[in-house]
Amino acid sequence: MTKPLLVFNSKGIYCKQADVYIDAWRPVEKCIVTHGHSDHSRRGHKQYITHHNNIPIIKHRLGDITVSGKEWGETFTINGVTFSLHPAGHIVASSQVRVEYKGEVWVFTGDYKIENDGLSTPYEPIKCHTFITECTFGLPAFKWEPQDDVFNEINGWWARNKDEGRTSLLFGYSLGKAQRLLKHLDTSIGKIYTHGAVEQMTQVLREHYDLPPTELITANTKKEDILGNIVVAPPSAQGSSLMRKIGPNVTASASGWMTFRGARRRRALDRGFVLSDHADWDGLLQAVKETGCEKVIATHGYTEIFSRYLREEMALDARTESTQYEAEQNEAESKKEEGAS
Ligand SMILES: [Zn+2]
Question: Which of 48, 267, 306, 335 can bridge 138 by disulfide, Cβ–Cβ 3.0-4.6 Å?
Answer without folding.
Answer: 306
